[in-house]
Amino acid sequence: MTIATCLPPKSPDLLLSKYGGPVPRYTSYPTAPHFDGAVDAALYREWLGQLPADRTVSLYFHIPFCDTLCWFCGCQTKITKRYEPVAAYLDRLDREIAMVREAAGGARLPVAHIHWGGGSPTLLVPDDIGRLARMIDRDFARTEDCEFAVEIDPRDIGPATVDALADAGVTRASLGLQDADPAIQHAINRVQPLAETAALVEELRIAGVRSLNLDLMYGLPHQTTAHVLATIDQALRMEPDRIALFGYAHVPWMRPHQRMIPEAALPGPSERLAQAQAAAAALMDAGFVPIGFDHFARPDDPMARALARGALRRNFQGYTTDGAETLIGIGASAIGRLPQGYVQNDAATGRYLAAIDDGAFATARGHALSGDDRLMGAAIERLLCDFEVDLPALAHAHGKPADAFTDACARLAPMIMDGLVLVQAGRLIVSDSGRPFVRRIAACFDAYLGTPAPAAAATDRAPRHSVAV
Fold it and tell me: In this structure, which of 196, 235, 285, 375 has its CB flanked by the most CB atoms within 10 Å?
Protein backbone atom coordinates (compact mmCIF):
# COMPACT_ATOMS: atom_id res chain seq x y z
CA MET A 1 0.00 0.00 0.00
CA THR A 2 1.35 3.41 -1.01
CA ILE A 3 0.88 6.41 1.25
CA ALA A 4 1.50 9.83 -0.25
CA THR A 5 4.22 11.90 1.36
CA CYS A 6 3.02 15.09 3.04
CA LEU A 7 4.57 17.87 5.03
CA PRO A 8 3.86 18.31 8.76
CA PRO A 9 0.33 19.61 9.46
CA LYS A 10 -0.10 23.34 8.91
CA SER A 11 -1.62 25.71 11.46
CA PRO A 12 -5.41 26.15 11.30
CA ASP A 13 -5.04 29.84 10.38
CA LEU A 14 -2.76 28.99 7.47
CA LEU A 15 -5.15 26.30 6.26
CA LEU A 16 -8.06 28.72 6.53
CA SER A 17 -6.20 31.30 4.46
CA LYS A 18 -5.49 28.73 1.74
CA TYR A 19 -8.67 26.66 1.71
CA GLY A 20 -11.38 28.54 3.59
CA GLY A 21 -12.68 30.60 0.68
CA PRO A 22 -16.01 30.33 -1.15
CA VAL A 23 -17.01 26.91 -2.44
CA PRO A 24 -20.33 25.17 -3.31
CA ARG A 25 -22.21 23.02 -0.81
CA TYR A 26 -22.68 20.28 -3.45
CA THR A 27 -26.27 19.27 -2.89
CA SER A 28 -26.10 18.41 -6.59
CA TYR A 29 -23.46 18.03 -9.27
CA PRO A 30 -23.31 20.11 -11.35
CA THR A 31 -24.53 22.71 -8.89
CA ALA A 32 -27.71 24.68 -9.63
CA PRO A 33 -25.96 27.82 -11.02
CA HIS A 34 -24.78 25.65 -13.92
CA PHE A 35 -28.25 24.48 -14.91
CA ASP A 36 -29.45 25.92 -18.21
CA GLY A 37 -32.57 26.36 -20.32
CA ALA A 38 -31.86 23.36 -22.54
CA VAL A 39 -33.91 21.31 -20.08
CA ASP A 40 -37.43 22.65 -20.51
CA ALA A 41 -40.98 21.58 -19.76
CA ALA A 42 -41.19 19.35 -22.84
CA LEU A 43 -38.02 17.47 -21.94
CA TYR A 44 -39.14 17.12 -18.32
CA ARG A 45 -42.42 15.61 -19.49
CA GLU A 46 -40.46 13.21 -21.69
CA TRP A 47 -38.24 12.17 -18.78
CA LEU A 48 -41.27 11.57 -16.54
CA GLY A 49 -42.80 9.42 -19.26
CA GLN A 50 -39.76 7.15 -19.19
CA LEU A 51 -40.16 6.27 -15.50
CA PRO A 52 -41.19 2.64 -14.94
CA ALA A 53 -44.59 2.33 -13.26
CA ASP A 54 -43.02 0.56 -10.27
CA ARG A 55 -40.13 3.02 -9.82
CA THR A 56 -39.93 4.18 -6.21
CA VAL A 57 -39.56 7.96 -6.09
CA SER A 58 -39.17 10.74 -3.55
CA LEU A 59 -41.17 13.96 -3.43
CA TYR A 60 -40.12 17.46 -2.43
CA PHE A 61 -42.73 20.22 -2.02
CA HIS A 62 -41.62 23.82 -1.80
CA ILE A 63 -43.88 26.21 0.13
CA PRO A 64 -42.33 29.63 -0.63
CA PHE A 65 -44.10 31.73 2.01
CA CYS A 66 -43.25 33.10 5.46
CA ASP A 67 -45.02 35.67 7.63
CA THR A 68 -41.75 37.29 8.75
CA LEU A 69 -38.32 37.57 7.16
CA CYS A 70 -35.37 36.06 9.00
CA TRP A 71 -32.31 38.03 7.99
CA PHE A 72 -30.02 35.00 7.92
CA CYS A 73 -32.27 33.11 5.52
CA GLY A 74 -30.83 31.87 2.22
CA CYS A 75 -34.00 30.11 1.05
CA GLN A 76 -36.35 30.99 -1.79
CA THR A 77 -39.32 32.57 -0.02
CA LYS A 78 -41.60 35.59 0.06
CA ILE A 79 -43.31 37.36 2.93
CA THR A 80 -47.07 37.50 3.12
CA LYS A 81 -49.48 38.67 5.80
CA ARG A 82 -52.49 37.36 3.88
CA TYR A 83 -53.47 33.73 3.42
CA GLU A 84 -55.07 34.17 -0.01
CA PRO A 85 -51.77 33.81 -1.94
CA VAL A 86 -50.97 30.65 0.00
CA ALA A 87 -54.37 29.13 -0.76
CA ALA A 88 -54.04 30.05 -4.44
CA TYR A 89 -50.58 28.47 -4.53
CA LEU A 90 -51.95 25.26 -3.03
CA ASP A 91 -54.44 25.04 -5.90
CA ARG A 92 -51.52 25.06 -8.35
CA LEU A 93 -49.69 22.40 -6.38
CA ASP A 94 -52.82 20.28 -6.78
CA ARG A 95 -52.63 20.71 -10.55
CA GLU A 96 -48.90 20.08 -10.77
CA ILE A 97 -49.20 16.84 -8.77
CA ALA A 98 -51.87 15.62 -11.18
CA MET A 99 -49.74 16.65 -14.17
CA VAL A 100 -46.80 14.62 -12.86
CA ARG A 101 -48.95 11.50 -12.56
CA GLU A 102 -50.37 11.99 -16.04
CA ALA A 103 -46.93 12.55 -17.59
CA ALA A 104 -45.58 9.46 -15.80
CA GLY A 105 -48.16 7.27 -17.52
CA GLY A 106 -51.01 7.50 -15.05
CA ALA A 107 -49.64 5.08 -12.49
CA ARG A 108 -49.49 5.96 -8.79
CA LEU A 109 -45.74 5.79 -8.38
CA PRO A 110 -44.57 4.38 -5.01
CA VAL A 111 -43.06 7.03 -2.70
CA ALA A 112 -40.50 6.29 0.02
CA HIS A 113 -39.61 9.84 1.09
CA ILE A 114 -41.70 13.03 1.25
CA HIS A 115 -40.27 16.38 2.30
CA TRP A 116 -42.07 19.70 2.73
CA GLY A 117 -39.70 22.65 2.77
CA GLY A 118 -39.81 26.37 2.40
CA GLY A 119 -40.31 29.05 3.27
CA SER A 120 -42.43 27.80 6.10
CA PRO A 121 -44.70 24.80 5.32
CA THR A 122 -46.43 25.21 8.68
CA LEU A 123 -47.84 28.50 7.43
CA LEU A 124 -50.49 26.24 5.89
CA VAL A 125 -53.67 26.18 7.94
CA PRO A 126 -54.57 22.76 9.42
CA ASP A 127 -57.24 21.98 6.81
CA ASP A 128 -54.76 22.67 3.99
CA ILE A 129 -52.12 20.47 5.57
CA GLY A 130 -54.63 17.65 5.35
CA ARG A 131 -55.61 18.68 1.84
CA LEU A 132 -52.01 18.60 0.57
CA ALA A 133 -51.48 15.17 2.14
CA ARG A 134 -54.62 13.89 0.42
CA MET A 135 -53.39 15.29 -2.92
CA ILE A 136 -50.21 13.28 -2.54
CA ASP A 137 -52.10 10.09 -1.67
CA ARG A 138 -54.44 10.59 -4.62
CA ASP A 139 -51.64 10.47 -7.19
CA PHE A 140 -48.83 8.61 -5.41
CA ALA A 141 -48.66 5.50 -3.23
CA ARG A 142 -46.73 5.86 0.02
CA THR A 143 -44.66 2.82 0.87
CA GLU A 144 -45.24 1.17 4.23
CA ASP A 145 -42.05 2.69 5.66
CA CYS A 146 -42.35 6.06 3.90
CA GLU A 147 -40.53 8.86 5.71
CA PHE A 148 -42.55 12.08 5.72
CA ALA A 149 -40.52 15.08 6.92
CA VAL A 150 -41.67 18.67 7.39
CA GLU A 151 -39.66 21.79 8.17
CA ILE A 152 -41.24 23.73 11.03
CA ASP A 153 -40.96 27.28 12.26
CA PRO A 154 -41.88 26.98 15.96
CA ARG A 155 -43.21 30.54 15.95
CA ASP A 156 -46.13 29.91 13.58
CA ILE A 157 -47.60 26.62 14.77
CA GLY A 158 -50.38 25.85 17.22
CA PRO A 159 -51.95 22.65 18.61
CA ALA A 160 -54.35 22.30 15.67
CA THR A 161 -51.44 22.42 13.22
CA VAL A 162 -49.54 19.81 15.23
CA ASP A 163 -52.57 17.52 15.12
CA ALA A 164 -52.97 18.09 11.39
CA LEU A 165 -49.34 17.14 10.74
CA ALA A 166 -49.73 13.95 12.78
CA ASP A 167 -53.00 13.08 11.02
CA ALA A 168 -51.27 13.63 7.65
CA GLY A 169 -48.74 10.95 8.59
CA VAL A 170 -45.70 13.12 9.23
CA THR A 171 -42.93 10.96 10.72
CA ARG A 172 -40.12 13.51 11.13
CA ALA A 173 -40.13 17.19 12.07
CA SER A 174 -37.22 19.57 11.60
CA LEU A 175 -37.38 22.60 13.88
CA GLY A 176 -35.30 25.70 13.29
CA LEU A 177 -33.62 26.96 16.47
CA GLN A 178 -30.42 28.67 15.23
CA ASP A 179 -29.26 30.21 18.56
CA ALA A 180 -30.98 30.34 21.93
CA ASP A 181 -29.61 33.74 22.97
CA PRO A 182 -32.25 36.52 22.71
CA ALA A 183 -29.70 39.14 21.63
CA ILE A 184 -28.56 37.02 18.69
CA GLN A 185 -32.16 36.23 17.83
CA HIS A 186 -32.82 39.97 17.62
CA ALA A 187 -29.73 40.42 15.43
CA ILE A 188 -31.11 37.94 12.87
CA ASN A 189 -34.75 39.08 13.21
CA ARG A 190 -35.96 35.75 14.56
CA VAL A 191 -37.10 36.16 18.14
CA GLN A 192 -38.02 32.67 19.31
CA PRO A 193 -38.33 31.99 23.06
CA LEU A 194 -36.64 28.75 24.00
CA ALA A 195 -39.64 27.64 26.05
CA GLU A 196 -41.79 27.92 22.92
CA THR A 197 -39.54 25.52 21.01
CA ALA A 198 -39.29 23.06 23.91
CA ALA A 199 -43.07 23.02 24.34
CA LEU A 200 -43.55 22.31 20.63
CA VAL A 201 -41.12 19.39 20.82
CA GLU A 202 -43.27 17.83 23.53
CA GLU A 203 -46.50 18.53 21.63
CA LEU A 204 -45.14 16.83 18.51
CA ARG A 205 -44.08 13.76 20.48
CA ILE A 206 -47.43 13.51 22.23
CA ALA A 207 -49.16 13.76 18.84
CA GLY A 208 -47.10 10.86 17.53
CA VAL A 209 -44.35 12.61 15.51
CA ARG A 210 -41.51 10.69 17.10
CA SER A 211 -38.48 11.66 15.03
CA LEU A 212 -37.29 15.20 15.69
CA ASN A 213 -34.42 17.24 14.26
CA LEU A 214 -33.13 20.59 15.48
CA ASP A 215 -31.37 23.02 13.14
CA LEU A 216 -28.63 25.11 14.80
CA MET A 217 -26.24 27.65 13.29
CA TYR A 218 -22.76 29.01 13.90
CA GLY A 219 -21.17 32.10 12.39
CA LEU A 220 -24.14 34.34 13.22
CA PRO A 221 -23.73 38.05 14.08
CA HIS A 222 -22.33 38.69 17.59
CA GLN A 223 -22.17 34.92 18.16
CA THR A 224 -19.29 33.41 20.13
CA THR A 225 -18.23 29.85 20.85
CA ALA A 226 -19.85 30.21 24.27
CA HIS A 227 -23.18 31.08 22.61
CA VAL A 228 -22.98 28.03 20.36
CA LEU A 229 -22.19 25.70 23.26
CA ALA A 230 -24.97 27.17 25.40
CA THR A 231 -27.44 26.59 22.55
CA ILE A 232 -26.27 23.01 22.15
CA ASP A 233 -26.77 22.45 25.88
CA GLN A 234 -30.36 23.69 25.58
CA ALA A 235 -30.94 21.65 22.41
CA LEU A 236 -29.73 18.43 24.03
CA ARG A 237 -32.29 18.86 26.80
CA MET A 238 -34.99 18.44 24.13
CA GLU A 239 -33.50 15.03 23.23
CA PRO A 240 -33.56 15.38 19.41
CA ASP A 241 -32.71 12.42 17.17
CA ARG A 242 -30.61 14.58 14.86
CA ILE A 243 -28.97 17.97 14.98
CA ALA A 244 -27.96 19.94 11.91
CA LEU A 245 -25.19 22.45 12.58
CA PHE A 246 -25.13 24.85 9.65
CA GLY A 247 -22.56 27.57 9.12
CA TYR A 248 -24.31 30.85 8.36
CA ALA A 249 -23.83 31.61 4.66
CA HIS A 250 -23.54 35.36 4.19
CA VAL A 251 -24.48 35.86 0.54
CA PRO A 252 -26.05 39.34 0.29
CA TRP A 253 -25.47 39.42 -3.47
CA MET A 254 -28.01 36.56 -3.69
CA ARG A 255 -30.23 37.46 -0.72
CA PRO A 256 -30.32 41.28 -0.37
CA HIS A 257 -32.13 41.11 2.98
CA GLN A 258 -28.91 39.78 4.50
CA ARG A 259 -27.57 43.32 4.20
CA MET A 260 -29.54 43.95 7.38
CA ILE A 261 -26.78 41.99 9.13
CA PRO A 262 -23.67 44.19 9.48
CA GLU A 263 -20.62 42.29 8.26
CA ALA A 264 -18.56 43.76 11.11
CA ALA A 265 -20.73 41.79 13.55
CA LEU A 266 -19.94 38.44 11.91
CA PRO A 267 -17.33 36.12 13.42
CA GLY A 268 -14.11 35.87 11.42
CA PRO A 269 -12.83 32.64 9.82
CA SER A 270 -10.86 31.50 12.87
CA GLU A 271 -13.80 32.08 15.22
CA ARG A 272 -16.17 30.27 12.83
CA LEU A 273 -13.86 27.27 12.77
CA ALA A 274 -13.55 27.34 16.57
CA GLN A 275 -17.34 27.44 16.91
CA ALA A 276 -17.82 24.51 14.53
CA GLN A 277 -15.16 22.37 16.19
CA ALA A 278 -16.30 23.11 19.73
CA ALA A 279 -19.90 22.29 18.79
CA ALA A 280 -18.88 19.03 17.13
CA ALA A 281 -16.88 18.00 20.18
CA ALA A 282 -19.80 18.76 22.50
CA LEU A 283 -22.24 16.76 20.38
CA MET A 284 -19.91 13.78 20.13
CA ASP A 285 -19.35 13.91 23.90
CA ALA A 286 -23.14 13.68 24.21
CA GLY A 287 -23.11 10.47 22.16
CA PHE A 288 -24.04 11.81 18.73
CA VAL A 289 -22.42 10.36 15.61
CA PRO A 290 -20.96 12.98 13.23
CA ILE A 291 -22.61 12.78 9.81
CA GLY A 292 -20.65 14.49 7.05
CA PHE A 293 -19.63 18.07 7.70
CA ASP A 294 -22.78 19.49 9.31
CA HIS A 295 -25.06 16.77 10.73
CA PHE A 296 -25.10 14.69 13.92
CA ALA A 297 -27.37 11.77 14.78
CA ARG A 298 -27.95 9.36 17.62
CA PRO A 299 -26.29 5.98 16.99
CA ASP A 300 -29.66 4.21 16.49
CA ASP A 301 -30.98 6.84 14.06
CA PRO A 302 -31.46 5.70 10.43
CA MET A 303 -28.95 8.32 9.28
CA ALA A 304 -26.21 6.94 11.54
CA ARG A 305 -27.04 3.42 10.37
CA ALA A 306 -26.88 4.53 6.73
CA LEU A 307 -23.46 6.05 7.35
CA ALA A 308 -22.22 2.81 8.94
CA ARG A 309 -23.20 0.71 5.93
CA GLY A 310 -21.97 3.20 3.31
CA ALA A 311 -25.47 4.15 2.18
CA LEU A 312 -25.54 7.82 3.24
CA ARG A 313 -26.58 10.10 0.40
CA ARG A 314 -26.72 13.80 -0.33
CA ASN A 315 -29.47 15.73 -2.11
CA PHE A 316 -31.07 19.17 -2.08
CA GLN A 317 -32.12 18.76 1.56
CA GLY A 318 -28.52 17.97 2.54
CA TYR A 319 -27.56 14.60 4.04
CA THR A 320 -30.25 11.99 3.66
CA THR A 321 -31.07 8.31 3.92
CA ASP A 322 -33.08 8.61 0.71
CA GLY A 323 -31.64 6.19 -1.84
CA ALA A 324 -34.20 6.82 -4.58
CA GLU A 325 -32.74 7.69 -7.97
CA THR A 326 -35.72 9.91 -8.74
CA LEU A 327 -36.65 12.99 -6.71
CA ILE A 328 -39.65 14.91 -8.03
CA GLY A 329 -39.68 18.58 -7.05
CA ILE A 330 -43.07 20.30 -6.91
CA GLY A 331 -43.69 24.01 -6.46
CA ALA A 332 -41.94 27.25 -7.36
CA SER A 333 -38.12 26.91 -7.51
CA ALA A 334 -38.30 23.20 -6.59
CA ILE A 335 -35.47 21.08 -7.97
CA GLY A 336 -35.86 17.45 -8.95
CA ARG A 337 -33.55 14.75 -10.18
CA LEU A 338 -34.49 12.02 -12.61
CA PRO A 339 -32.22 9.31 -14.02
CA GLN A 340 -31.53 11.56 -17.02
CA GLY A 341 -30.66 14.72 -15.09
CA TYR A 342 -31.85 17.68 -13.03
CA VAL A 343 -34.90 19.90 -13.47
CA GLN A 344 -35.87 23.10 -11.69
CA ASN A 345 -39.14 24.99 -11.65
CA ASP A 346 -39.23 28.72 -12.17
CA ALA A 347 -38.24 30.47 -8.95
CA ALA A 348 -40.62 33.39 -9.57
CA THR A 349 -43.91 32.45 -7.97
CA GLY A 350 -45.93 34.49 -10.47
CA ARG A 351 -44.38 32.74 -13.46
CA TYR A 352 -44.80 29.37 -11.77
CA LEU A 353 -48.51 30.03 -11.23
CA ALA A 354 -48.97 31.21 -14.83
CA ALA A 355 -47.30 28.12 -16.28
CA ILE A 356 -49.44 25.76 -14.23
CA ASP A 357 -52.57 27.72 -15.17
CA ASP A 358 -51.62 27.18 -18.82
CA GLY A 359 -51.46 23.44 -18.23
CA ALA A 360 -47.68 23.31 -18.62
CA PHE A 361 -44.89 22.36 -16.28
CA ALA A 362 -43.05 25.39 -14.88
CA THR A 363 -39.63 23.91 -15.70
CA ALA A 364 -37.22 26.81 -16.23
CA ARG A 365 -33.88 25.05 -16.44
CA GLY A 366 -31.94 21.92 -15.62
CA HIS A 367 -29.05 19.77 -16.71
CA ALA A 368 -28.86 16.52 -18.67
CA LEU A 369 -26.19 14.40 -17.01
CA SER A 370 -23.21 13.16 -18.99
CA GLY A 371 -21.12 10.14 -18.06
CA ASP A 372 -18.41 12.44 -16.71
CA ASP A 373 -21.00 14.31 -14.63
CA ARG A 374 -22.12 11.05 -13.02
CA LEU A 375 -18.55 10.00 -12.28
CA MET A 376 -17.45 13.29 -10.74
CA GLY A 377 -20.74 13.66 -8.89
CA ALA A 378 -20.27 10.21 -7.35
CA ALA A 379 -16.73 11.09 -6.22
CA ILE A 380 -17.96 14.32 -4.64
CA GLU A 381 -20.85 12.59 -2.88
CA ARG A 382 -18.68 9.84 -1.41
CA LEU A 383 -16.11 12.36 -0.16
CA LEU A 384 -18.80 14.47 1.50
CA CYS A 385 -20.54 11.42 3.01
CA ASP A 386 -17.68 9.05 3.85
CA PHE A 387 -14.62 11.35 3.86
CA GLU A 388 -12.95 8.88 1.52
CA VAL A 389 -13.35 7.45 -1.97
CA ASP A 390 -11.75 4.60 -3.89
CA LEU A 391 -11.00 6.29 -7.22
CA PRO A 392 -9.96 3.20 -9.26
CA ALA A 393 -13.04 1.27 -8.10
CA LEU A 394 -15.31 4.23 -8.84
CA ALA A 395 -13.87 4.71 -12.33
CA HIS A 396 -14.32 1.00 -13.05
CA ALA A 397 -17.92 1.05 -11.80
CA HIS A 398 -18.69 3.89 -14.22
CA GLY A 399 -16.91 2.27 -17.14
CA LYS A 400 -14.23 4.94 -17.19
CA PRO A 401 -10.46 4.54 -17.67
CA ALA A 402 -8.08 4.54 -14.73
CA ASP A 403 -6.83 8.03 -15.63
CA ALA A 404 -10.31 9.58 -15.44
CA PHE A 405 -9.34 11.53 -12.32
CA THR A 406 -5.98 12.85 -13.53
CA ASP A 407 -7.03 16.51 -13.54
CA ALA A 408 -8.77 16.24 -10.16
CA CYS A 409 -5.72 14.61 -8.59
CA ALA A 410 -3.50 17.39 -9.93
CA ARG A 411 -5.72 19.92 -8.18
CA LEU A 412 -5.55 17.82 -5.01
CA ALA A 413 -1.73 17.85 -4.90
CA PRO A 414 -1.35 20.95 -2.64
CA MET A 415 -3.90 19.50 -0.18
CA ILE A 416 -2.01 16.22 -0.07
CA MET A 417 1.20 18.10 0.66
CA ASP A 418 -0.58 20.08 3.40
CA GLY A 419 -1.85 16.92 5.08
CA LEU A 420 -5.55 17.40 4.31
CA VAL A 421 -5.73 14.24 2.21
CA LEU A 422 -3.92 10.89 2.27
CA VAL A 423 -3.65 8.60 -0.73
CA GLN A 424 -3.54 4.85 -0.18
CA ALA A 425 -3.41 2.70 -3.33
CA GLY A 426 -5.72 5.08 -5.16
CA ARG A 427 -8.05 5.60 -2.20
CA LEU A 428 -8.40 9.19 -1.04
CA ILE A 429 -8.84 9.59 2.71
CA VAL A 430 -9.62 12.97 4.24
CA SER A 431 -7.50 13.50 7.36
CA ASP A 432 -8.82 14.92 10.62
CA SER A 433 -7.29 18.31 9.76
CA GLY A 434 -8.87 18.11 6.31
CA ARG A 435 -12.43 17.42 7.45
CA PRO A 436 -13.39 21.08 7.96
CA PHE A 437 -12.27 21.68 4.35
CA VAL A 438 -13.97 18.66 2.77
CA ARG A 439 -16.07 20.88 0.49
CA ARG A 440 -12.85 22.43 -0.83
CA ILE A 441 -11.38 18.94 -1.32
CA ALA A 442 -14.52 17.80 -3.15
CA ALA A 443 -14.32 20.89 -5.36
CA CYS A 444 -11.18 19.43 -6.97
CA PHE A 445 -13.55 17.10 -8.84
CA ASP A 446 -15.80 19.93 -10.05
CA ALA A 447 -15.12 20.54 -13.73
CA TYR A 448 -17.53 23.49 -13.74
CA LEU A 449 -16.10 25.43 -10.80
CA GLY A 450 -14.72 28.78 -11.86
CA THR A 451 -16.52 28.75 -15.21
CA PRO A 452 -19.34 31.17 -16.04
CA ALA A 453 -22.83 29.96 -15.28
CA PRO A 454 -25.24 30.02 -18.24
CA ALA A 455 -27.21 32.95 -16.83
CA ALA A 456 -23.99 34.92 -16.26
CA ALA A 457 -22.31 34.07 -19.55
CA ALA A 458 -22.74 37.59 -20.87
CA THR A 459 -20.74 38.99 -17.97
CA ASP A 460 -18.17 36.17 -18.02
CA ARG A 461 -18.57 35.80 -14.27
CA ALA A 462 -18.33 32.57 -12.34
CA PRO A 463 -21.02 31.90 -9.68
CA ARG A 464 -20.27 33.12 -6.17
CA HIS A 465 -20.57 30.82 -3.14
CA SER A 466 -20.42 30.88 0.65
CA VAL A 467 -17.19 30.23 2.55
CA ALA A 468 -15.98 26.66 3.06
CA VAL A 469 -16.04 26.65 6.88
Answer: 235
Closest listed residue to residue 442, CA positions, set 393, 394, 376, 398: 376
For 279, residues 6+ apart whose C-beta sits below 8 A from its C-beta are: 216, 218, 228, 229, 232, 245
Q: Please enumerate, by residue number, every residue annotated as part of a binding site for S-adenosyl-L-methionine.
A: 60, 72-74, 118, 151, 178, 190, 215, 249, 335
Domain that holds residue 349: 32-368
Number of residues in the chain: 469
* pLDDT tens column, 208-251: 998 999 999 999 999 999 999 999 999 999 999 999 999 999 98
CA distances from residue 124 to 116, 142, 176 in whole angstroms, order as listed: 11, 22, 17
**Binding residue positions for [4Fe-4S] cluster:** 66, 70, 73
411 within a domain of the structure (yes/no): yes
- If asked whether residues 321 and 214 sit together in one domain, one would say yes
Do 269 and 399 reside in the same domain of the chain? Answer: no
For the stretch 113-149, pLDDT in tens is 999 999 999 999 999 999 999 999 999 999 999 999 9
Tell me how far apart the alpha carbons of residues 235 and 345 are, in angstroms, rounded to a whole number: 35
CATH number at residue 196: 3.80.30.20
Q: What pTM did the predictor assign?
A: 0.93
